[in-house]
Structures are given as structure tokens and as C-alpha cells.
Specification:
By secondary structure, the chain is α/β, with parallel strands linked by helices. Helix content is 39%, strand content 21%. Strands 5-10-2-1-13-15-16-14 form an 8-stranded mixed beta sheet, with helices on both faces. α3 packs across α5 and α4 crosses α5. The longest helix is centred in the middle third of the chain and has 25 residues. The chain is globular and about 65 Å long. Bound molecules: adenosine-5'-diphosphate and magnesium ion. Adenosine-5'-diphosphate (ADP) binds next to α9. Magnesium ion (MG) binds next to loops.
Length: 299
């Protein structure tokens, strides 16, 4: 990773030049919605957290509508461990028994969401935390997960949710005003039961129903890597298929790439998986002109 530049040494004239270079991008994205999946290291490192919050506020202030969807895997893992429970994953999904579901709700809708809301507010924005229950936003049902290799085999992953529908009315109402929605990936079922939904899946579906201009997924790696650990800067649906089948894409990258592809095919103009470990990753992607991370193509 590159060393951060000492910006105190940049001459005011150069700073003005840099800002002016962002103008075409600001004009292009003004009034548009961007869904941002916030996860990985960007969410646990304090300096990166602050950069993220500043970037989100800056986007809002230049007339772009950021909508944040957050994950919380490491934080859930920490609390489970403290309670003496061991997390388990099948095909990238957390096996969610009732006790785990309680922990997921505490951590996501409590701690993590409110931390992000606080950070954004501190950076000068007005964030509002929501779960999928708020505004009856995310209806879900139990995910029926078939085995990747054997379609006759089904895995029981407990209260992991499959999205039935998303009603974005509450998000629209907030973003049309001055607020920045921060969404925790928790859905509700017909009996008002709770569902733990992969945050990438929620971000992708929300981007689709909002007809967002961009979906940006911040993660803890450079982007999608090939077998030789080289960054793949662009991926077509066909290439993605091959990489999943041959096992190059595994674990948490499976729901991420599936969501990203869904969004790209459903009309979200630009879908990128980017490195959240890079300071100001968000601004770099939105207002910079260098390609960054992996872009997912719709065809
Ligand atoms: P996030 O918090 O971003 O959702 P995840 O752990 O769920 O993080 O997903 C990102 C992880 O996916 C990476 O850290 C990496 O270990 C894993 N992964 C699996 N296959 C690939 C691949 N082909 N390219 C990049 N990452 C991959
Ligand atoms: Mg993940």
C-alpha cells in the first residue's frame, strides 16, 4: 500500500487544481444515488473509519445521495467468542441459530450501526440508522441454500434470510431530505421473525430498487483476484461463472460477486468492488479518474 501523502505540503494552488478536477464528476453524479457497502478493514481501523465518514459527508454535500449498507462479520465474531460460541459458515453464509440471531441483532442494529451513525455525524453529516424493519423495508424468508456442486443437497443455515422484497420508501424519504441512511442488513418475515441477511446481498438489491447510479462494495482485499492473486480489473458474467465453478472465487466473495452481478444486470450503471484499506477509497473511486478495484460488467 502507498504511504499517505503529506497534504500540508501541497501548495494552495495545487489544491485548488485538484478540487477543480473533481468538478466533472460532481456534475455527472449530482442528484444521483450511490449505494455503498461498508465492510472489512475499512470498518475496524479508526483512521480509515474517519476517512470513510468524511467521504460520505462530502458526497452528500456536493449533491450526491449516499446510502450506506454495513456488514459486521468481525464484530459479530468477537461477541460470539466472548459468549463461548464458535461461528460457522457454509458457502460464505453465517449459520444463524436463534442465539446467534440475537447476537447479530445486538451487534449490527446496535453497536455497529450506531458507531457509523456517530462517525458520520461527527464528520458533519446527518445520518439515520435503520434496519430492514424500519419503514417495513426488507421482507425476507428463510434462505434455502443448495450445495454449489450438488443441486440435490440443501444446507440448513438457520435464520439466514433471502430477500422477498425491498420497499425503499423510507430510504427515499430520508435521502430526499438532508439525511444519510445507514442500513443494517436485518429483514423480517411473515411472523415478524428476524433474518440475518448478507450485507452484500442487501446492498445489491437496494441499489437495484433505488435504481442507483453506482454500487460500491468496500472490502478487505484489492478486488477480485485470479488464481495467481492478480487483480482482475473487469469481469463479465461469463468470467464470474467460471471463477466460481473452478473455486477461484470462494467464501465471502461468493455472495458479494453474485450481488454485484445482479445489480449490474438490473440496471445499476456502475458496480465496483474496491479496496476499503486504501485511505479515502470512496472519494478515489467517485471523484478520481484512475481505475480502481474490480468493475463488474452486465454482459
Ligand atoms: P466483506 O467484509 O468485504 O464482506 P468477506 O470476508 O465477506 O469481506 O469477503 C471478502 C473475502 O473474500 C476476501 O478477504 C477473501 O478472503 C475472499 N475471497 C475469496 N475468493 C476471492 C477472490 N477470488 N478474490 C478476492 N477475494 C476472495
Ligand atoms: Mg462479507
Amino acid at each position: 500500500m502507498t504511504e499517505p501523502t503529506d497534504i500540508t505540503s501541497i501548495a494552495p494552488r495545487d489544491k485548488a487544481e485538484i478540487l477543480a478536477q473533481a468538478l466533472p464528476y460532481i456534475r455527472k453524479y449530482h442528484g444521483k444515488t450511490m449505494v455503498i457497502k461498508y465492510g472489512g478493514n475499512a470498518m475496524t481501523d479508526p483512521a480509515l473509519q474517519q476517512d470513510f465518514a468524511e467521504d460520505v459527508v462530502l458526497l452528500k454535500l456536493v449533491g450526491i445521495n449516499p446510502v450506506v449498507v454495513h456488514g459486521g462479520g468481525p464484530q459479530i465474531e468477537t461477541l460470539l467468542k466472548r459468549l463461548g460460541k464458535q461461528g460457522q459458515f457454509i458457502q460464505g453464509m453465517r449459520v444463524t441459530d436463534p442465539e446467534t440471531m440475537e447476537v447479530v441483532e445486538w451487534v449490527l442494529a446496535g453497536e455497529v450501526q450506531q458507531d457509523i451513525v456517530g462517525l458520520i455525524n461527527q464528520a458533519g453529516g446527518k445520518a439515520v440508522g435503520l434496519t430492514g424493519r424500519d419503514g417495513a423495508m426488507i421482507r425476507a424468508q428463510k434462505l434455502r441454500m443448495t450445495d454449489q456442486k450438488d443441486p440435490n443437497l440443501e444446507h440448513d443455515v438457520g435464520q439466514v434470510g433471502d430477500i422477498v422484497s425491498i420497499d425503499p420508501a423510507v430510504v427515499k424519504a430520508l435521502q430526499d431530505d438532508q439525511f444519510i441512511p445507514v442500513v443494517s442488513p436485518i429483514g423480517f418475515g411473515e411472523q415478524n421473525e428476524s433474518y440475518n441477511i448478507n450485507a452484500d446481498v442487501v446492498a445489491a438489491k437496494l441499489a437495484t430498487v433505488l435504481q442507483a447510479e453506482k454500487l460500491l462494495m468496500l472490502t478487505n482485499i484489492r478486488g477480485v483476484l485470479d488464481k495467481d492473486m492478480q487483480l482482475l480489473t473487469e469481469l463479465t458474467p461469463r468470467q464470474i461463472d467460471d471463477l466460481v465453478v473452478d473455486g477461484t472465487i470462494s467464501g465471502g466473495m461468493i455472495p458479494k460477486i453474485a450481488g454485484a452481478l445482479d445489480a449490474a444486470k438490473s440496471g445499476v450503471n456502475a458496480v465496483h468492488i474496491i479496496d476499503g484499506r486504501v485511505p479515502h477509497a470512496l472519494l478515489l473511486e467517485v471523484l478520481g479518474n484512475e481505475p480502481f478495484g474490480t468493475m463488474i460488467r452486465s454482459h
